[in-house]
Amino acid sequence: MFEVEVTAKVQETDDIHLFRLARTDNSALPAFSAGAHIDLHLPNGLVRQYSLCNPPHDHHCYEIGVLKDPDSRGGSVCLHESVNVGDRLTISEPRNLFPLEHSASHHLLIAGGIGITPLLCMAERLAHTGASFSLHYCAKSPAQAAFVERINTSEFADRVTFHFSQTEGRLDMQALLADPDQGTHLYTCGPNPFMDAVLQTAAAQGWDEPRLHREYFAAAASSGEADSAFEIQIASSGEVIQIPADKSALDVMLDLDIDIPFACEEGVCGTCSTRLLSGEPDHRDVYMSPEEHARNEEFAPCCSRAKSARLVLDI
């Protein structure tokens, strides 16, 4: 963790701001790769993850695009309303759960709304290295799309197609994803329903899972009404912990002073991911792939629960 200063706060749209972060002495920041995100510690005590959207070869600032979400749990509202130029914030070093597959012969990037942030960084990197790619950017209207001028004046502007649903109609996903080339990898980011539509269409068109990459900003909401209690056994001590239906495994373990790292608390960042030794989990995170869920090798205690009566964790 280290401290940065907000050196710019730019209004991209009515509800999206770009924040530029730099060290106070303007020294180089830790290097990052396209698709990476940082943990941002906010003045109100929350920790939120934001994708970096500046070119990865820029080592003196990090840029994040933040949507003021009407359903915000306090993160985006705090940034929009309380954080300004000159303020100092604590951040983590970048981590990447959404990397480019550099062996691909072509990269197909599909962004929905604020999901442009990691994909813009990917486009910058792919253009810088001369790789083959195309970017499709979906938004309701030009006024609600961030970074339009930056994209239109970039060296890769001719590889970007905008889809504005209010004026030009929605992206024809079936046509775009038909007859997939085996060397092409697909990357998508945006609201959960948008990404689900992209990924489901791709699967129906014959894309295999290893070539599908996604970055979720939030896990799907769960009412919790059908949740039941289960047990967690700590492998190192043999201690068995009761997890009631109305509390997460992470909350219970923290209450018992069990040392486990965490950040987002909603299954997005992977910080609390713990090795699973036995038991059948009910995976509810969005940072692991379906293949990783099927292997049942990890468990996200912040959001996931159990299908079996007990899970044994490598803690």
TrEMBL record:
Keywords: 2Fe-2S, Flavoprotein, FMN, Iron, Iron-sulfur, Metal-binding, Methyltransferase, Oxidoreductase, Transferase
Needed cofactors: FMN
Residues annotated as domain FAD-binding FR-type: 1-101
Origin superkingdom: Bacteria
Xref: Pfam families: DmmA-like_N, Fer2
Name this polypeptide is given: Vanillate O-demethylase ferredoxin subunit
Listed InterPro entries: 2Fe-2S_ferredoxin-like_sf, 2Fe-2S_ferredoxin-type, 2Fe2S_fd_BS, Beta-grasp_dom_sf, DmmA-like_N, FAD-bd_FR_type, FNR_nucleotide-bd, MRET
A GO MF label: metal ion binding
Organism: Amphritea atlantica
